[in-house]
Known about the structure:
Helix 8 (230-243) packs across helix 11. Mean pLDDT is 83; it is low at 88-108 and 151-163. The chain has helices at residues 84-87, 89-100, 106-109, 113-121, 140-158, 178-193, 206-223, 230-243, 287-302, 308-311, 376-391, 394-398; strands spanning 2-6, 17-22, 29-30, 35-40, 45-49, 54-59, 66-67, 72-77, 196-204, 249-252, 255-258, 264-266, 268-270, 273-275, 278-279, 316-320, 339-343, 346-353, 356-370. By secondary structure, the protein is of the alpha+beta class. The termini are far apart. It has three domains: 2-77, CATH 2.40.50.100; 103-158, E3-binding domain (Dihydrolipoamide Transferase, Irregular), CATH 4.10.320; 198-398, Chloramphenicol Acetyltransferase (2-Layer Sandwich), CATH 3.30.559.
Amino acid sequence: MLIEVKVPVLSESIPDATLARWHKKSGDYVLRDENLVDLETDKVMLEVVAPQDGLLTEIKKISGDVVTSGELIAVIDTDAKAPAAVEKEAVVEAPKQALASETEPAAAMDLSPAVRKMVAENKLDPASIAATGRDGRLTKADVIKHMEQGSQSVVSATVSTSVVGAGGRPEQRVPMTRLRARIAERLLEAQHTTAMLTTFNEINMKPVMDLRAKYQEQFQKKHGIKLGFMSFFIKACCEALKEFPAVNASIDGNDVIYHGYFDMGVAVSTERGLVVPIIRDADQLSLAELEQAVSDFAGKARDGKLSMEDLSGGTFSITNGGTFGSLLSTPILNPPQSAILGMHKIEQRAVVEEGQIVARPMMYVAISYDHRIIDGREAVSFLVKVKEVLEDPARMLLQI
């Protein structure tokens, strides 16, 4: 039986996608749920997997082609018999694996059938691939990441250079990825269509740092995750947004939409660019649940596993340039949101407390906002509220 492999349904905000890289070729026998091709959209990288075991008889679209929802990209013959090599793979490879394990690291040689097949097909050395799976095992994601890094190196090395100027200095011309192009488009859109303004303040992080130091061990033992700074900032922003609803609003034509919920976007940096997954109803989550959500999204972003739903919506965003050492910045809005908070590096600075000069761990914070619906008074007051909550964390428990 011939079955069609089609582009999955994309969201309304994503009209098309690009076939980034085929992992199989015509004539390959594929197994159900094996990744056939990576599909790059403006927001995420998706995997198109084989719906059934069978022979990949025809590839309709090649890498680099732009495709739309439901478009036919390949055909699989499910009646085709699996090659003997596939049927006997586990039997043949098991003794080889046991023998090799005497001289090779376990993490490199203890491979699942799917991973072993990928390694063999691409003539890779498992020992050279960084393993991130349980007990140091190699996963399909590890192999794919290794191959992508290798292909990027090859591309960089083979891109034609143009000699310019009297000095004969080389240049490289590399096309933007869809994600990078979309980021550029949205940043320009934000600057051209909003009346963006930024205001600043600074926060004494000692109370939060003392609280983390005091309860970190107990928190981690109970919840299985470290207590970081982001959960405190999300909670503080939710409290401030409740008090200043315009900061949580958005513009739709001539209307202002005041959102009665708090879907928090948290910017995550990846090799492909910046993405902003959304934590839904952040005000209803505990610090532990927020930390887990941030950690899960960061892992999915690194592995290219974010879904379009993960990135859709959001009423307010937080970005942390401090992780890269930024001391001060003016974050750019993430439309249609009307405000974004920028966190920065914590640095010991001299401050005056009760007439005495003391050293305190200080952080500059910034809020960029759309001045069309948010007045300066509201923006400044919002930031002051965030400062007050973080400098006295008990406020979050007492909701004052």
